Amino acid sequence: MLDLYLLPLIRKEGFDAARPPGLYMATPPRHTARGRSTDRLIFHLNTSGTAALPDDELEGILAHLAQLFYKTSGAITSVLKIIAEELNRTLLDLNIQNSNSGKQCIGLISMAVLREDKIILAQCGPVHAFLINPQEVQHYHDPQGAGRGL
Q1: Neighbours of 65 (CB within 10 A)
Q2: Which of 16, 73, 109, 125 has the highest CB neighbour count under 10 A?
Q3: What is the pLDDT of residue 85?
Q4: Would you put residue 139 in left (φ > 0), alpha (ψ -120 to 50) or beta?
Q5: DSSP output for 24-82
Q6: pTM score
Q7: 129-149 burial, b for 16+ CB within 10 Å, e for fewer?
Q8: Residues 6+ apart with CB under 8 A from 36
Q9: CA 121 → CA 2, 45, 51, distances in Å?
């Protein structure tokens, strides 16, 4: 079985934050799509730009994406792609609404699914992830494929 420890290090306005904005951890709801009942889902969404989203809006978007994840059957990688596309549509709609004001929101997301002793990771934008165990530290980041985000 895989143990997961999240150690967020974040300071906001000179103070340590108890929980970073945009961090969302979900457990399966009572009714899930086939094969999702044991999946544990973790999102970390960071928005930037002139129309960055407030914390409560981030929470609502991530809750919606988690519902979509648990209602959608199929391979985890395919469902994570659907989640990224849905988030991209949401941010695009927001940017279209704000086009007259010149404001723009860019999203950077890391998505992880824990299933038994496996972790499946998907990243959009220039984000980093580290897998640390007693034998090694693995750094996950693709500068060529990272792009600027959603």
Answers
A1: 24
A2: 109
A3: 96
A4: beta
A5: EEE---SS--TT-TT-EEEEEEEEESTTPPPHHHHHHHHHHHHHHHHH--S-HHHHHHH
A6: 0.85
A7: eeeeeeeeeeeeeeeeeeeeb
A8: 28, 69, 70, 72, 73
A9: 14, 14, 27
Per-residue pLDDT, 150: 66
Give kind and range of the element (H or E) at residue 108.
strand 106-115
CA 104 to chain CA centroid, Å, is 19
**pLDDT averaged per 10 residues in sequence order, the chain, 150 residues:** 68 74 90 92 90 88 96 95 96 91 91 91 89 88 73
Which among 43, 32, 20, 35 has a CA at the least distance from the CA of 110? 43
Residue of 93, 91, 67, 63 whose CA lies nearest to 79: 67
Domain edges within the chain: 22-140
Tokens 């340590």 -> residue: 16
The pLDDT assigned to 8 comes to 66
pLDDT at 64: 96
Helices (H) and strands (E) in the chain, counts: 2, 8
Report DSSP state, residue 13.
T
